[in-house]
Amino acid sequence: MTTITRNRDIPAPYGCRWCGDEKRRHGKQWVPTIGLHSWHEPTQEQIKERMWCRRSIRLSLAPTQYHATTAWAADHTGESADPYCADCKTDGCRPWQRIQDRLNHQRWGLPRVPRGGQPGGWGGYEAEPF
């Protein structure tokens, strides 16, 4: 077995028997060992080995460290609490605000605003952009 350091180096578990590409984007491929070929179903041993490799990489990696951890500042009335960044202990932390906004959009089912700018005419929401 070869030494693999990243998940993207491992073929998909159900990828082609010969090249490892997924069926939905395979088409005709050329590999030196087999030549021009179409997608072929992998053997059970290949599937098992690919899954074990992915799992071993996942378990060997250190957990991802995030800066913006949410904590709650109790207002001591029992009614509610105000969220803040637990790492820098402020509610003005930009990474925390970005993550919190994204979570709020997901929680409330709101559409996300594209990064490139505001939807609308040339300059934004004007009814007549010219």
Please summarize what this structure is:
25% of the residues lie in helices and 12% in strands. With 130 residues, it is an alpha+beta fold. The strands form two sheets. The chain has a two-stranded antiparallel sheet.
Chart the SSEs and their pairings.
Layout: E1 29-31, E2 35-37, H1 44-60, E3 70-74, E4 81-85, H2 94-108
Antiparallel strand pairs: 1-2, 3-4
Question: Would you write up a description of this structure?
Answer:
The N terminus is likely disordered. The strands form 2 sheets. A two-stranded antiparallel ribbon has the order 1-2. The chain has a two-stranded antiparallel sheet with strand order 3-4. The protein has 2 domains: 54 residues, no CATH class; 39 residues, no CATH class. With 130 residues, it is of the alpha+beta class. Strand 3 and strand 4 form a beta hairpin. The protein contains 2 helices and 4 strands, in the order ββαββα.
